[in-house]
Amino acid sequence: MGGINTVAVLFFFLFVAITLIITYWAAKRTRTASEFYAAGRSISGFQNGLALAGDYMSAASFLGIAGMVATKGFDGLIYSIGFLVGWPIVMFLIAEPLRNLGKYTFADVVAYRLRYTPIKTVSALGSLTVVILYLIAQMVGSGNLIKLLFGFPYELSVIIVGTLMVVYVLFGGMIATTWVQIIKAVLLLGGATVLALLTLAQFGFSPESMFSAVKTQYGEKFLQPGGLVKDPLDAISLGTALMFGTAGLPHILMRFYTVPDAPEARKSVFYATGFIGYFYILTFVIGFGALLLVGKDRILAVDKGGNMAAPLLAEVLGGNPFLGFIAAVAFATILAVVAGLTLAGASALSHDLYVGVLKRGKATEDEEIKVTKIAVLLLGVVSILLGIAFKGQNVAFLVGLAFAIAASANFPALVLSIYWKRFTTAGAVASILTGLTLSVVLIVLSKAVWVDILKNPAPVFPWGNPALISMPAAFLVGVLVSLLTSEKEAEEKYEEMKVRKLLGLGAE
């Protein structure tokens, strides 16, 4: 590895050319706010399942989990399983009510029977925090990946990714973003399948033989828990963030408005869960394959985080052409995820803050789309600047923080607003602010920031992830404040909301 990989550059330009043609096609079909934010509700359950998988399977999933398994062994499963098991929660608790009650963002659902302005303000704050943290992690990851695989300078790589994501979202809206995510999901699932099959072929297509080889070369401990997270409570806290954070990620929740009705929303989660589950099984094979066929020392020599395990395995098994293909797939993965994040962030700024708060719901569609496009440009510039500013930083904690905030600030308020009649505006605001503040403060006091970045001798908060404390606290505060305050109008509207939630009457 190192220097410019011609095959990777060719695949990269091919992917960019195809996606730009799609953006041009989508731009001609994007006129109204519904088409811009929700693809005109024209995406089928199967297509949305693929797009959800494309939106969710980020570079952190593909490169990070394979690398974690290759360097830490069994504990890599915490991430694989944690990322996956959030989906049944989305399917059974969130998908259908969200589609029936909302319009473009999850804040529409929380604000359905509560006071509009305070809910939209704090929901947008939670969404933007998650989106920006997630975007920084993706931008820094893309800069390092492209620098390593394509030979471009870091800053140029970040600018390329930022410019392309702005073009996709600005001109093609949700239609272009959806199809970029579908293409990326197909490429990623196809590439990972070939990589896993080539790996298993080295062991007579027997996973048992592969695990026996791991035991022989690296000892039985590598197949047992404890390689990554030593404290069981810390492991449970991390699992909590990954599991419930999925159900609070704004760019994932927004995808349920692209399908025509609630049954299609549920179908899309069913398909997405299948695709994502299959993919995470492959990352486990790829991780252990890289450990055996590339070697732990070589993986760590190329990147201390182990993130290059999958590309290095592709080079060993398929030479330079296969490495180029996998590198281009990883790049496509980043582009698709940042496009979805940008659209979710722009909708929080325009639909929730501008239309919901500043204009009190009285802006025209043209005005709303215009503000959204300005918000896309703004987010693009901010992402590029933050991506360059965070150069060389360990940003793994940002992804954990994004999931912890989503699980603590967004998920409790969303669930309580849908399922609890006594939930009040004051309770919702208190719940979101508690989850947001507590998760950010505890992460700052943890080792990832307090010791590794601020260079203090020991962390104040002992765990790597705060969700086990911040999420229950957000639920508790939301319930207590709601019990202490009363909102008759919200309670009366609950019955009407229940009918719409179950039957979809009045939903767009």
Automatic annotation (TrEMBL):
<dbReference type="InterPro" id="IPR018212">
    <property type="entry name" value="Na/solute_symporter_CS"/>
</dbReference>
<keyword id="KW-0915">Sodium</keyword>
<feature type="transmembrane region" description="Helical">
    <location>
        <begin position="396"/>
        <end position="420"/>
    </location>
</feature>
<keyword id="KW-0472">Membrane</keyword>
<feature type="transmembrane region" description="Helical">
    <location>
        <begin position="463"/>
        <end position="484"/>
    </location>
</feature>
<keyword id="KW-0406">Ion transport</keyword>
<feature type="transmembrane region" description="Helical">
    <location>
        <begin position="427"/>
        <end position="451"/>
    </location>
</feature>
<dbReference type="InterPro" id="IPR038377">
    <property type="entry name" value="Na/Glc_symporter_sf"/>
</dbReference>
<keyword id="KW-0769">Symport</keyword>
<comment type="similarity">
    <text>Belongs to the sodium:solute symporter (SSF) (TC 2.A.21) family.</text>
</comment>
<feature type="transmembrane region" description="Helical">
    <location>
        <begin position="156"/>
        <end position="179"/>
    </location>
</feature>
<keyword id="KW-0812">Transmembrane</keyword>
<dbReference type="InterPro" id="IPR050277">
    <property type="entry name" value="Sodium:Solute_Symporter"/>
</dbReference>
<dbReference type="GO" id="GO:0015293">
    <property type="term" value="F:symporter activity"/>
</dbReference>
<keyword id="KW-1003">Cell membrane</keyword>
<feature type="transmembrane region" description="Helical">
    <location>
        <begin position="6"/>
        <end position="27"/>
    </location>
</feature>
<keyword id="KW-0813">Transport</keyword>
<dbReference type="GO" id="GO:0006847">
    <property type="term" value="P:plasma membrane acetate transport"/>
</dbReference>
<dbReference type="InterPro" id="IPR001734">
    <property type="entry name" value="Na/solute_symporter"/>
</dbReference>
<feature type="transmembrane region" description="Helical">
    <location>
        <begin position="76"/>
        <end position="95"/>
    </location>
</feature>
<dbReference type="Pfam" id="PF00474">
    <property type="entry name" value="SSF"/>
</dbReference>
<feature type="transmembrane region" description="Helical">
    <location>
        <begin position="235"/>
        <end position="257"/>
    </location>
</feature>
<feature type="transmembrane region" description="Helical">
    <location>
        <begin position="371"/>
        <end position="390"/>
    </location>
</feature>
<feature type="transmembrane region" description="Helical">
    <location>
        <begin position="48"/>
        <end position="70"/>
    </location>
</feature>
<keyword id="KW-1133">Transmembrane helix</keyword>
<protein>
    <recommendedName>
        <fullName>Cation/acetate symporter ActP</fullName>
    </recommendedName>
</protein>
<feature type="transmembrane region" description="Helical">
    <location>
        <begin position="322"/>
        <end position="350"/>
    </location>
</feature>
<keyword id="KW-0997">Cell inner membrane</keyword>
<keyword id="KW-0739">Sodium transport</keyword>
<feature type="transmembrane region" description="Helical">
    <location>
        <begin position="116"/>
        <end position="136"/>
    </location>
</feature>
<dbReference type="GO" id="GO:0005886">
    <property type="term" value="C:plasma membrane"/>
</dbReference>
<feature type="transmembrane region" description="Helical">
    <location>
        <begin position="269"/>
        <end position="294"/>
    </location>
</feature>
<feature type="transmembrane region" description="Helical">
    <location>
        <begin position="186"/>
        <end position="205"/>
    </location>
</feature>
<dbReference type="GO" id="GO:0006814">
    <property type="term" value="P:sodium ion transport"/>
</dbReference>
<dbReference type="GO" id="GO:0015123">
    <property type="term" value="F:acetate transmembrane transporter activity"/>
</dbReference>
